Amino acid sequence: MHRILSEFLNNAKMSGETPFFPPDIAVHIVNKCEQAQIPIYGIDAAKIADTCIQPYMQHSVDYTTSPYPEGYFENVWDEAIQFIKRREQLGLHFEIVIPTEYRADTVLSTQNKSNL
Fold first, then answer.
1. What are the pLDDT digits (tens) for 55-91?
2. Which of 1, 21, 32, 38 lies 20 to 30 angstroms, CA to CA, from 101?
3. What are the start-end ranges of the E strands in the chain?
C-alpha cells in the first residue's frame, strides 16, 4: 500500500486489505496524489456496514478509459475530486485506485522475488 493511503488508514473502513475512505478523507488523498504526481486509475464506492460492504458500481469510475481522444483525462485529480464531492451526501466510502508501480507492497514484493 502506498504511504499516502497508509497515512489515512485510521480513518478507513477495511474490506480485507482494501481501505475505503469517507469523502472528506478521499479528497485529501486525491490532493496528496496530485502533489506527488501519482495518477488516479479509478474510484470504487461502497456503503459500509458493521457486517458487510455493498459496492455501488454506479458510483464508481475507471479513469483508465476516457472520453478524450488522447485516452486520458486532462486533469484526473480535479475530475476525481468532483466525482467524490458529487456523492458526499450518499453515505458512501471510496477506494482510491492508484497504479501498482506506486504501491509500496508491490515494490517490496518485487524486491523480495529478485533476492530468491
1. 999 999 988 876 655 555 678 899 999 999 999 999 9
2. 21
3. 13-15, 18-20, 42-48, 53-62, 93-97
